[in-house]
Amino acid sequence: KMLGSSTERTSGSPLLWTATRVFWTLGASITRTRVEEGGANRSVSSCSFERAVTRRISLVEKQGSKEEGKMLGSSTKRGMTRRLPSSTTRMRMRMASVASERRVLVSTTTSSVMRIPHSHDASSSSSSSWRRRKRVVGRPRPPHQAARAVLDGAPPAADTSSSSCLDSDSDSGKPRVIIAGGGIGGLCAALALQSKGIPFTLYEKVKEYKPFGGPIQLQCNALESLEAIDMSVARQIMDLGTITGDRINGLLDGKTGEWYLRFDTRKPALKKGLPLTLVLNRYVLLDILKGAVKPESMTLGKRVESYEEVSAEDSPTGKAFVEVRFDDGSKTIGDVIVAADGINSTVRKQVRTRGNDEATYSGYTCYTATCDFELEDVEKIGYQVYLGNGQYFVASDVGEGKTQWYAFKAQEPGIKDESGDVRGNLLELFKDWSADVRARFEATLEEDIEQRDIYDRRPVFNWVKGKVALLGDSAHSMQPNMGQGGCQAIEDGYVLADVLSRCNMEEGDGCIQQALNEYGRRRCARAASIHGFARSAALMTTTWRPYLGSDPYSFYSYIPGAMQFWSALEKLKIPHPGKVIGQVMMMVSIDLILEYIACGGPVSEEDRVKYCQVPGVGVPKRDLPKDAFKMNGIPGFAE
After folding, report:
1. Distance CA 305, CA 207 (A)
2. pLDDT of 403-416, one tens digit each?
3. Quick one: 615 exposed, middle or buried, by C-beta within 10 A (0-12, 13-18, 19+)?
4. Integer angstrom CA distances of residue 415 from 363, 366, 419
5. Which of 104, 142, 240, 526 is the most exposed place for a label (fewest CB within 10 A)?
6. Which of 146-160, 227-241, 434-448 has the lowest average pLDDT?
7. Which one-letter DSSP state was computed for residue 180?
């Protein structure tokens, strides 16, 4: 966390010496650091670090400086500091958690900087292990105990008294949460609850996590939420991911391969101080998330089948609870159920019993694979969406010389290609498309191609019923066109933990309903709007025609001479009015859309510090020309 310099100076201030002891603790994790004094650099050890801090703070007290313990987060924007809370309790709580963040300690010595870098050397690994142990605390200690643990040079120990939501003796005052489903949404919710000290148990139907699926895109809004949930987990993900958000991304004409729209995804990230969009293998992501959740809080091989709310009047203990039944006949109880069990959620079926609540077919089937292929200008191009009539193609660099692609085709649901030559059929389907599209098919192995029909659920504005809350695909399953399905599930997990952290069960369970209602208010509208963006992107291809005469409607075949007329007209290459109007609208709105998606996340400034990634240091340095994202020509006819 960023700690500011607004504390009031007092002679022999206990806060000052608390800061001193914490700095000693931080110094113990550093093998070598650079200290700049009087313009000259010198290397010092941990002991020298302690002496330097002690000497400097002594001078601070004598001089009456008000700049006690100024700290800046690494890679922050210029002037982007946060002031230290004046409350002694909040000060100590922040001191207890300061070791879990990347930091830069700026001393009051003229031009003196003591940097604690984030790296992969031995000292960094030790620090990372310290952070992981600290972040899995089941329930926070009282502030004075947490501060004392840090001052004594040891991280706060985990409190196992609330490790299971079934522990009826838990005195945490927090609601006991049952999470149905251990996908991205369920694991992120578990990690967020864990970071807030809220007892939970996650139940996942599979008995073992196995590799499946391909890379997943994590946009900057998802990374923002992950950093707010657990910085060490977010750092692992960003270290292993392949950044695409600093390259040219956009839409192209499927047949000609010409750019229809290029957009700069760096803008919103820089504006709000967010990490750049990246792609990461889905299984690697799940493995990182699962590894950060306490094993005793997870149970595999159990699927939630139904639930029943028991009132205080009917409860043997006089306290209301929720009883959950599993597919093996066993039961458990808790205070809250989180339905993170996917698009075909069994919990959702019990929550939403009125009307037709079935998943909606998008009209498209999707073929996907990852292949050994790189564009010649891969350092400049991130992901591309090739548009066509009734079909479209999406490709993204995923690092290590590989490309992930998706080929969408409009057809009726349930038609599975079992010919044994899916790649050949795709080459035939896209035979007159751009050479770069066909090259990706040719670089793909037949056995690597998967097919699935694309479904979503219509947006709903009530995710809560009683003490049950929907999360992730069970609440807002959306088409993959915006790359936001998993990202929105991560936002859900952050918000859910945030609202539940303010519940005090000792004051009655009415706070649960208030918290879940707030969760719905904060999430429903945003998820619904992004769901709408994803649907509209697919609708674009149903009307896409590059030129007048291209892809004429089928009924023209019944009119003598009509098809020949449209074929001759297409050769004149007169831009189709729909394409012209569409480009104008996209050029006007794309920056606003990207900014809303990236910068409209739910993370509060108190939970995460803004910073900018430095090209060539924290992220790759791209050699992009200044006009790389510029479309040449007037809107509607730009190239």
Report:
1. 16
2. 999 999 999 999 99
3. middle
4. 12, 11, 12
5. 142
6. 146-160
7. E
Burial of residue 211 (number of CB atoms within 10 Å: 0-12, 13-18, 19+): exposed
What is the per-residue pLDDT for 172? Answer: 64
Quick one: which H or E segment has residue 221? helix 220-229
Interior/surface letters 372-410, b for 16+ CB within 10 angstroms, e for the rest: ebbeeeebebbbbbbbbbebbbbbbbbbeebbbbbbbbb
Band (639; pLDDT cuts 50, 70, 90): confident
Determine the Cα–Cα distance for residues 541 and 52; give it in Å rounded to an integer. 64
Q: How far apart are CA 494 and CA 52, in angstroms?
A: 39
What residue spans of 256-392 are helical by DSSP H?
266-272, 282-292, 346-351
Residue with the bigger pLDDT between 13 and 228: it is 228
Q: Is the dihedral of CA 428, 570, 542, 486 positive or negative?
A: positive
Q: DSSP assignment of 431-492, as one string?
A: TTS-HHHHHHHHTS-GGG-EEEEEEE----S--EETTEEE-THHHH---GGGS-HHHHHHHH
Angle CA 317–322–323, to nearest 5: 95
Q: What is the pTM of this model?
A: 0.74
Q: What is the 3-state secondary structure (H, E, C) of 380-432?
A: CEEEEEEECCCEEEEEEEEECCEEEEEEEEECCCCCCCCCCCHHHHHHHHCCC
Which residue has tokens 């510090």? 609
Q: Which residue has the higher pLDDT, 509 or 517?
A: 517
> What gap in Å lies between CA 530 and CA 598, rounded to an integer?
11
Q: Which residues of 463-491 are buried (b: 16+ CB within 10 A; e: fewer)?
A: bbbebbbbbbbbbbbbbbbbbbbbbbbbb
Q: How far is CA 326 from CA 114, 184, 307, 519, in A?
A: 54, 21, 9, 26
Pairing between strand 360-372 and 381-387?
A: unpaired
Task: Give residue-wise pLDDT tens across range 238-286.
Answer: 999 999 999 999 999 999 999 999 999 999 999 999 999 999 999 999 9
CA–CA distance, 184 with 202 (Å, rounded to integer): 12
pLDDT tier at 16, thresholds 50, 70, 90:
very low
Cβ atoms of 516 and 503 closer than 8 Å: no
Q: At 195, is the secondary structure helix, strand, or coil? A: helix
**Is residue 597's pLDDT more than 90?**
yes
Q: What is the pLDDT of residue 160?
A: 34
Q: What local confidence, expressed as pLDDT, does residue 501 receive? A: 95
Could you tell me the two tokens for 263? Answer: 């957009």
Closest CA to 189 of 490, 469, 602, 501: 490
pLDDT for the residue 136: 34
pLDDT (average), residues 121-125: 35
The candidate with the shortest Cα–Cα distance to 177, out of 503, 460, 490, 475, is 503
CA angle 611, 186, 512 (to 5 degrees): 90
Question: What is the phi/psi pair of residue 387, to 5°?
Answer: -95, 145
DSSP-H helix ranges across 75-157: 88-97, 122-135, 143-151
Query: pLDDT over 70 for what percent of the chain?
Result: 73
Dist. CA 255–CA 253, nearest whole Å = 6
In this model, does residue 294 exceed pLDDT 60? yes
